[in-house]
Specification:
The chain has 13 helices and 15 strands. Helix 6 packs parallel to helix 8 and helix 11 crosses helix 12. The radius of gyration is 22 Å and the shape is globular. It binds zinc ion (ZN). InterPro entries: Amidohydro_3, Metal-dep_hydrolase_composite, Metal_Hydrolase, Metallo-hydrolase_Enzymes.
Length: 420
């Protein structure tokens, strides 16, 4: 007897719907017309079921600040400055309240795991990390939270940060973050990367660095991807390192950027474009043919780089938009990245599921297959190929075999009565 069975679930467009049985939070069978009794059932009626969506890069502590202040010039430096000022007024109650609102949105939208990057610096200290450590426990069973100790203000240019990062990892941060571009010169950027990898070795944790966030790579502080690939190989951390943004790849000549992408693939460094932020803050000096400023996803695929995408910021000076909805961001990435074919759209969806799971180190228990954890989303659409295009309802969100969110909606056209 199963705990839950999802009947008639469409998991592939070229195959008949299947039944998915779940016991003790684990998928125990995936086959058509399964003969088994269960304590609870969802009739999917040939609607699409996908594995739980995964946000690999979100700033919960800085979310929902847009009503308090916007960056006057809408640049990266402006957003950091404005948010740095707001951070001085952060309290645990305020950070937790905003983070909860985003987490609730993410759950309703089908997200079952999320990697958060709370700031760690002399302005806020460990406030964000401490709040998220508590929320990680509070949300257990609803969404899995990974916490990255993130030095937004730099490490060398913000003295005291290194010890705070160490303290954050001691208090329960799961990942060491970095912000390699936010140092005074390229020598300090390299030192920043070195320090991050030293902490990764000291605490045996994965690495997730904000890197190369600029329209091009003319300033060498925004051309650290190769250095990070080398550091990854030296540390033997292939498969446990991710870099976010990497927008400079979009602006570099094809031969140069392909060489960098080959290095990243070989070293086992994943790339996470953050299209809403990259587009909002990028290309601000361009008066004609404004750059899109998103890492070239198709070329990353061709190079064999693991890619995922994420919301990054939700309604603040970095990104004044967002609902913590990965299908929304995926469609935006498809539209801005020239990724429109059915095969492209399938791969974009995989970036938010299978590939993001690999990036978070949970690929062994993710997916729709026997033995995987039952993190599943029933979409209000009947073709997998339409999962992004339809912006479908997340009819049911199942986390470890338990229904954690439900959306029901009735829409109808009210036609005028026929004239007789
Ligand atoms: Zn970020």
């Amino acid at each position: 007897m199963a705990d839950l069975v999802l009947r008639r679930a469409r998991v592939a467009d070229d195959a008949e719907p299947v039944d998915i049985a779940v016991s003790d939070g684990i998928i125990t069978a995936v086959e058509p017309a399964l003969r088994c009794r269960s304590a609870a059932e969802i009739d999917c009626a040939a609607r699409v079921v996908i594995p739980g969506l995964i946000e690999p890069h979100v700033h919960l502590d800085k979310a929902l600040l847009a009503t308090q202040a916007v960056a006057p010039d809408d640049t990266l430096a402006g957003a950091i400055a404005v948010t740095g000022e707001l951070k001085r007024g952060f309290t645990a109650t305020d950070v937790a309240a905003r983070a909860r609102r985003v987490l609730d949105q993410a759950i309703v939208h089908g997200t079952t795991a999320l990697r958060a990057h709370p700031d760690v610096d002399p302005i806020v200290g460990l406030l964000g990390v401490d709040v998220l450590v508590d929320l990680r426990a509070e949300y257990r069973g609803l969404i899995d939270l990974q916490i990255v100790a993130f030095p937004q203000e730099g490490i060398l240019r913000a003295p005291g940060t290194l010890e705070l990062l160490r303290a954050a990892l001691r208090r329960g941060a799961d990942v060491i973050g970095g912000c390699s571009y936010n140092e005074a010169d390229v020598a300090d950027c390299e030192r920043h990367v070195d320090l991050v990898f030293e902490l990764a070795a000291e605490f045996d944790v994965p690495v997730d660095i904000h890197a190369d966030f600029a329209d091009d790579a003319t300033d060498p502080r925004f051309a650290m991807a190769d250095y990070i690939a080398t550091a990854t190989e030296r540390a033997g951390l292939g498969g446990r390192v991710a870099i976010g943004h990497v927008t400079s790849l979009a602006g570099r000549p094809p031969g140069e950027r392909r060489a960098t992408m080959a290095r990243l693939a070989e070293a086992g460094v994943a790339v996470v474009p953050l299209p809403a932020t990259d587009m909002h803050l990028g290309g601000r000096a361009d008066e004609t043919a404004v750059r899109r400023g998103i890492a070239p996803v198709r070329e990353l695929w061709a190079a064999g780089v693991t890619t995922a995408y994420s919301s990054n910021n939700i309604r603040n000076a970095f990104t004044p938009y967002g609902n913590a909805d990965l299908l929304d961001i995926g469609l935006f990435l498809a539209q801005t990245g020239h990724l429109g074919s059915p095969a492209d759209l399938r791969r974009v969806l995989a970036m938010a599921t299978t590939e993001a799971a690999a990036l978070l180190g949970i690929g062994d228990r993710h997916g729709i297959r026997v033995g995987a954890r039952a993190d599943l989303v029933v979409l209000g659409t009947h073709r997998v190929a339409d999962a992004l295009l339809d912006r479908p309802d997340r009819c049911y969100v199942v986390k470890a075999g338990r229904i954690v969110a439900r959306t029901t909606r009735t829409t109808e056209i009210l036609r005028p009565a026929p004239v007789r």
